[in-house]
Write a structure and sequence with these properties.
Layout (H helix, E strand, L loop, with lengths): L1 E3 L5 H8 L3 H10 L5 H7 L5 H10 L3 E4 L2 E4 L3 E2 L1 H9 L1 H11 L3 H12 L7 E3 L7 E6 L5 E6 L7 H9 L8 H7 L4 H16 L8 H8 L21 H8 L3 H15 L3 E6 L2 H10 L1
Parallel strand pairs: 4-5
Antiparallel strand pairs: 1-5, 2-3, 6-7, 7-8
Helix pairs in contact: 10-14
Length: 282
């Protein structure tokens, strides 16, 4: 069971990170309207009652007439399949597939970074599109839109670092760059990409090697990922996508990832130096 919530709220992150979270949500999903006695029998560990009260306070669990139940929507694979068949989702999907990769990245960025207004739960077998983001705000940023972890997901690696996670899938990156400061890393990467934009070969180091390993650069020093650029004539598309709720949008993004981008859609944003140099060379 996974939860989607407003990640900008630190208290919510702390709650979902606790060991109580998954077993409690699973128990309440299977046993609605249970009593406190039943909960205490199931969760006898110290600190459980306090945790339960915190979940009630943020609205994840409802208590009424001394009974407890989940207060979050729960979506299954069947719900995901139904959403994928909805006319509004299919129509929007066809519109988006007509865009180039660069246009699609530019159009999607404001929507994939939006946070759900209301938290919700999904079953473990539901694969939704989600955004990983790292870098220097307002300057060089790395994004990846994914449905599952990927060893070449540079942004995902730094997201995991922030949460003090060490997933095995990122072990090669961890061995190469370790627990490097995120801001320092992207400062070094910005310098490398600036040289590439000028047609100069960067010096070999761990930062350059990480760009090669994650497929950001080819051995011929070609940048493989799109920039986000300004688009016109997208008002109709924006209107359509804004009618979807967060779950429906995530299902749509998951379809795009799996069918067009093989699970990982990655790009950089606002790398001003390279864009300027490209204009000079044209």
């Amino acid at each position: 069971m996974k939860i989607y919530y407003d990640t900008r709220k630190s208290k919510l992150y702390e709650l979902q990170a606790k060991a109580f979270f998954t077993p409690l949500m699973t128990f309440l999903q299977a046993r609605p309207n249970c009593t406190l006695r039943e909960l205490n029998q199931q969760f006898s560990e110290k600190g459980f009652v306090k945790y339960l009260e915190s979940c009630i306070e943020v609205g994840w669990i409802e208590r009424a007439d001394r009974r407890y139940q989940l207060n979050l929507p729960f979506y299954t694979q069947e719900d995901q399949q139904q959403v994928a068949k909805e006319a509004a989702v299919q129509e929007l999907l066809q519109d988006l597939l007509h865009l180039s990769q660069e246009e699609l990245a530019t159009f999607l960025q404001p929507f994939v970074t939006c946070q759900p207004e209301t938290a919700y739960l999904v079953a473990d077998d539901v694969a939704l599109g989600r955004l990983q983001e790292a870098g220097l705000p307002g300057d060089l940023q790395a994004f990846s839109l994914v449905t599952k972890p990927d060893a070449s997901d540079l942004a995902g690696y730094f997201v995991a670092n922030r949460h003090l996670e060490e997933p095995v899938i990122y072990s090669q990156l961890a061995q190469l760059i370790g627990d490097v400061d995120e801001e320092y890393y992207f400062q070094q990467v910005q310098w490398i990409l600036s040289r590439v934009g000028k047609g100069k070969a960067p010096k070999a180091n761990i930062f350059y090697e990480s760009l090669l390993r994650t497929g950001v650069l080819t051995k011929e020093n070609q940048l493989t990922i799109p920039y986000l650029r300004n688009l016109s004539e997208t008002t109709e598309l924006k209107t359509k996508i804004m009618k979807l709720n967060h779950f429906e949008m995530s299902v749509l993004l998951g379809i795009l990832c799996e069918n067009r981008f093989k699970g990982l859609f990655q790009w950089f944003y606002k790398e001003k130096t390279i864009v300027a140099n490209k204009r000079e060379n044209n």
